[in-house]
Amino acid sequence: MCNKMLFDPFLSDEIELGTPATSLYRLIHDVYVLLDNADRRVLAQFDLTPSQYRVLTLLHPFDGRRLTDLSDRMLFARSTITRLIDQMEAVGLVHRVTDPEDRRAQRVALTSAGADLRERAYAAHEQYIAECLAHRPAPEQEQLIQLLKHMRTSLRVHLGIQDT
């Protein structure tokens, strides 16, 4: 086992160590950790976790989505999605309905309270993220968006993950 260094994700000089792919991975991981922390901070005022917020953004008030679709979309195990939906249902944010196309399947839809919370949380989240990320010029932001879209596509293909 080669242990050349201990990696501290917040020490930028260590990002450059290793291959370009390793450096890229470390940097993207660091950005993810920081964005996740930002999400937790802004969503805490609504008593939401990032996973709960993601569910709210994926649901519609009327037709909803199948639990299996949510699981696939969020890359969560079905048991994890079930527990998450159980928690959200207990506080009145979502409700289960029978799937009209398959009576054995269930869909999850937003309640009016869930739709209201989603709108308030979305507005606060958008404002917070804009404040955090708006310091770069628009052309740089657009270039980064395009690069990350290409990376996402490549990763999805490499991992065999279908678009949902």
Provide an overview of this structure.
The structure is a single chain. Helices cover 63% and strands 10% of the residues. With 164 residues, it is mainly alpha-helical. It has 2 domains: 12-133, Orthogonal Bundle (Arc Repressor Mutant, subunit A), CATH 1.10.10.10; 135-164. The chain has a 3-stranded antiparallel beta sheet. Helix 2 (20-44) packs across helix 6. The termini are far apart.
Q: What's the order of the H and E elements?
A: HHHEHHEEHH
Helix content: 55-70%
Structural class by secondary-structure content:
mainly alpha
- The CATH topology of the largest domain is given as Arc Repressor Mutant, subunit A
The CATH architecture of the largest domain is Orthogonal Bundle
Number of domains: 2
How would you name the CATH homologous superfamily of the largest domain? Winged helix-like DNA-binding domain superfamily/Winged helix DNA-binding domain
Rg result: 19 Å
Average pLDDT rating: 87
Q: What summary fits the major beta sheet?
A: 3 strands, antiparallel
- β-strand amount: 5-15%
How would the global form be characterised?
globular
Total helix count? 7
Q: How far apart are the first and last residues' alpha carbons, in Å?
A: 39 Å
Largest beta sheet: strand ordering: 1-3-2
Q: Quick one: how many beta strands?
A: 3
Main CATH class of the largest domain: Mainly Alpha
Low-confidence stretches: 1-6
